[in-house]
Amino acid sequence: MTRTTRCTPTRNHEQIRDAGYGAPHAVEYTLGWHADRAQGPAGAGKSTFCTGLIQHLQNNKRPCFYVNLDPAAEEFAFEPDLDIKDLISLEDVMEEMGLGPNGGLIYCFEFLMENLDFLTDPLEEVTEDYLIVFDMPGQIELYTHVPILPGLVKTLMHGSLNIRMCAAYLLEATFVIDRPKFFSGTLSAMSAMMMLEMPHINILSKMDLVKGQVAKRDLKRFVDVDADLLDDDPSRKVKSEAEERKHVDPASKDSLMNGASFHKLNKAVAELIDGFSMVSFLKLDVQDEDSLGAVLSYIDDAIQYHEAQEPREPKEFDVDVDIDQD
Ligand SMILES: Nc1nc2c(ncn2[C@@H]2O[C@H](COP(=O)(O)OP(=O)(O)O)[C@@H](O)[C@H]2O)c(=O)[nH]1
Ligand SMILES: [Mg+2]
Questions:
Q1: 137, 145, 190, 281: which has the fewest Cβ within 10 Å?
Q2: Secondary structure (DSSP) of 105-119
């Protein structure tokens, strides 16, 4: 079955593009037959990444199927082919059930799991040459606290659909400026990797915001996470050994008041992450086609996209090229 790319730009597309970027936010997530799923904290740039990825796929004449699974999403640069809001919206749930945003989101996903045909029936129609892009909500609890998403991933990957999936976890690059915050974001990424048990890439998004602020050599230590970054933190006051020894008990008032216990906790978290050696990051500048292309090549490898393509006769390739050039 041959289908053209379904993702069509919405009327808001140009408005969103022209509006430029808003204030920097924290971390977020996207997922993706080949499916790529964007996930991560709210404001990390998941939806922007999905938009960039879809545009990049279109530029390269690759078909994609865009699924919005954020029941609170309001604006889309491309019209989703499937939108959870046609099943249930966060606004309605909060109003009718009297729930807050986090409880409401969990309710929406529980409702989706009870009505999975809404998602699986249209996906049955999508052929292997498509990249399915899932845009996900930002509430981190969904990835780290409750077992709903692992259940959803299992259905899509191991049920009759048998979709090969890769999760893309986005952490905003500005976190590298605040090292304890960077490690806390990295811990969330690791926790999501363990919960979801699926191929996973981690991305430092919004690289444009840290351009010129972090030396290349330092950035390497964030990309391949290095726990010693906390000891070399320039924002931390260096203390003499004698001073450090005074704070061996992290529960003492002195330790608490001068931040020594906070540092010890952060160091323990960083060493845990380092010890597992599971998290490293790809850098993403969503405005840069090469950067998007590089991230996509990792996703393609993870989902074995190219291996799964039917060999095509030369005449089936693009015929846009004028072969009669002199
Ligand atoms: N400077 C900069 N801003 C970005 C980038 N990606 C997203 N943003 C901005 O960050 C905010 C949140 O982005 P969005 O994609 O909606 O995040 P989501 O909540 O993870 O889906 C928006 O104001 C975007 O314009 C980026 O690569 N660079
Ligand atoms: Mg979003």
A1: 145
A2: HHHHHHHHHHTTHHH
**pLDDT class of 128 with cuts at 50, 70, 90:** confident
Distance 304 CA to ligand 1 centre (A): 28
Buried b (16+ CB within 10 A) or exposed e, 54-66: bbbbbeeebbbbb
pLDDT in tens, 32-52: 456 677 777 778 899 999 999
Domain membership of residue 314 (yes or no) is: no
The pair of three-digit structure tokens given for residue 154, joined into one six-digit string: 């299992």
**Which residues, chain by chain, have CB under 5 Å from ion ligand 2?**
46-47
Distance, CA of 199 to CA of 50 (rounded, Å): 18
- Name the residue range of residue 41's domain: 5-225+279-307
Residues 135, 234 within the same domain: no
Q: Which helix (H) or strand (E) holds 149?
A: helix 148-158
Other C-beta atoms closer than 10 Å to the C-beta of 283 total 17
Do residues 61 and 74 touch, judged by C-beta distance below 8 A? no
